[in-house]
Design a protein that fits this description.
26% of the residues lie in helices and 33% in strands. By secondary structure, the chain is an alpha/beta fold. The strands form two sheets. Strands 2, 3, 4, 5, 6 and 7 form a six-stranded mixed sheet that branches. Strands 1-10-9-8 form a four-stranded mixed sheet. The longest helix has 24 residues. The radius of gyration is 25 Å and the shape is elongated. The protein starts with a strand and ends with a helix.
Length: 270
């Protein structure tokens, strides 16, 4: 069974598809290096400079703490909390587990405030975003930006959060009720079988300028992903060039994709 999926994938506005992959932040990796979730801001701590190995160990402890809380909530096994929390912070972590709603955070920006001369105590400020099931909203999620001070201590080779104090917790505003989806006013680039992957930058600029001159806002590109259709290694580069030109003209790109519903290639684009 063959069918056409129109307006599939993304609308590439303002050159979004032209973004160089090298500029993207990694979202996975070692927790000791932040895994794309945590970044250190310039230190403001004294009297001792924070060693690179200590910074990595603190990064690992901060990120693993949240994961250990989530594991304890799912499994009921709370013994691992002692490896990452102590004193008041341990009680707080247990309370989060008991609440049944563990937060999921990202975008941590950490500033060192104090590093003890003996190298066993640090004070940090952590700013981050998080989502958590809203206790007043049933299945709704609460998203907020939090700023908190954290004191951590080194014991038995492990950095443990000793206590923390929330300075600010600013909920994101609730989104407006969904309305009708915007309807693009566009024109298709040639017939469905057109191979546009070899077009030059000048051609893209001319085509997208023509779209604007017609009073439209979107250029529709046909893309055939059915088994047996010609494949081109130039597709990604062509989209990148088209995206740059679209950004310059403030014009959208829309992929009109044809797939076979049962083919492996169709499952890759869904």
């Amino acid at each position: 069974m063959t069918f056409r999926r129109t307006a599939l994938l993304v609308t590439l506005l303002l050159g979004g598809c032209a973004r160089d992959l090298a500029d993207g932040q990694p979202q996975v990796g070692s927790l000791r290096t932040g895994a794309g979730l945590l970044r250190w801001l310039p230190d403001q701590g004294r009297p001792r400079a924070l060693e690179p190995s200590t910074r990595e160990a603190l990064t690992d402890s901060l990120l693993r703490g949240e994961r250990e809380v989530a594991f304890a909530l799912r499994s009921g096994q709370r013994e691992g909390l002692r490896d990452l929390f102590t004193e008041a912070a341990l009680e707080d972590a247990r309370a989060v587990v008991a609440s049944g709603a563990a937060p999921h955070s990202w975008g941590h920006r950490v500033t060192l405030r104090f590093y003890a001369p003996d190298g066993a105590t640090v004070s940090l400020t952590d700013q981050f975003w998080y989502v958590i099931p809203d206790p007043d909203g049933g299945a709704a999620l609460r998203a907020a930006r939090r700023t908190q001070d954290v004191v951590a201590q080194l014991d038995d080779g492990n950095w443990r959060a000793h206590h923390w104090r929330v300075l600010r917790d600013e909920p994101m505003p609730r989104p407006d009720p969904p309305g009708p989806a915007p309807l693009p006013r566009g024109v298709r680039l040639g017939p469905p079988g057109l191979d546009w992957t070899g077009r030059s930058v000048d051609n893209w600029q001319r085509d997208l300028r023509a779209v604007r001159d017609l009073g439209l806002d979107t250029l529709i590109l046909p893309l055939d992903l059915r088994p047996g259709a010609p494949e081109s290694s130039r597709t990604a580069l062509a989209l990148s060039e088209a995206g740059r030109a679209a950004g310059a003209q403030r014009t959208g790109l829309l992929l009109e994709v044809q797939v076979d519903s049962l083919s492996p290639r169709s499952r890759q684009v869904r």
